[in-house]
Amino acid sequence: MSSTFDAKKALIVHAHPESASFCASQMRAARDELVRQGYEVDVIDLYENKLDPVLDRGEFEHVEEPFKPQKEQLKAVKEGTLDPRIREDIDRVLAADLLVFSFPLWWFSVPAVLKGWVDRVFVMGAVFGGDYGILDEAALAGKRAVALTTTGGPEAMYSEDGAFAPIESFLFHVNEGIFRFVGYEPLKPVVTYGPAHLDDGQRENALGAVRSEFETIDERPRA
């Protein structure tokens, strides 16, 4: 049996304003299954966390003009002047072997609060750049990340013959532009299509499917 010193660690960053939503239910299903698989699970609920998602000059000391956010981030890392809440979330990210972004697909993207969290927490000099590079040289290289999401429409709409492109095209910026850029291996996303159109029994089945996906998360293929 693994000790607490070598237990796998997962961080779930959850972005939905309603705790009774299906999106929140599937996050909890994923969390509970990860625990069953031996993970220590940390959860950041962005709507409870209330971290300002706007990256601006106000969070930095002695800003040089013109304001260059990444330059100021790098300086703050070196000088130890990062906002303590940002430093705390960075440390939670760095501690995790697996990162899960839990969110509803809004306007074919992530909610603004999640994008803002990335802007403020995936800091240059802490997770990439500075003493690190990008991709395989970034601070999170060797770790894995997965998108756990819901859509408004049914699966048939997200296909080559559907109204929209396959879901992978809408998550490209998450898998490649966020996860892979900072070193993660992006895993195949876990998607529940159109939960608002499901009855109670179908929703329970969908939650069971989410649990099954996370039961084998360690063998999950790359996105």
Automatic annotation (TrEMBL):
Molecular function (Gene Ontology), one example: NAD(P)H dehydrogenase (quinone) activity
Annotated GO CC locations: cytosol
InterPro entries: Flavodoxin_fold, Flavoprotein-like_sf, NAD(P)H_dehydrogenase_qn
Limits of the Flavodoxin-like fold domain: 8-208
Coiled-coil positions: none
Superkingdom of the organism of origin: Bacteria
Signal peptide from the UniProt entry: none
Pfam families, per database record: Flavodoxin_2
Keywords associated with the record: Oxidoreductase
Gene3D superfamilies per record: 3.40.50.360
UniProt similarity note: Belongs to the NAD(P)H dehydrogenase (quinone) family.
Database matches in PANTHER family: NAD P H OXIDOREDUCTASE-RELATED (PTHR10204), NAD(P)H DEHYDROGENASE [QUINONE] 1 ISOFORM 1 (PTHR10204:SF34)
Name of the protein in question: NAD(P)H dehydrogenase
Organism: Peptidiphaga gingivicola
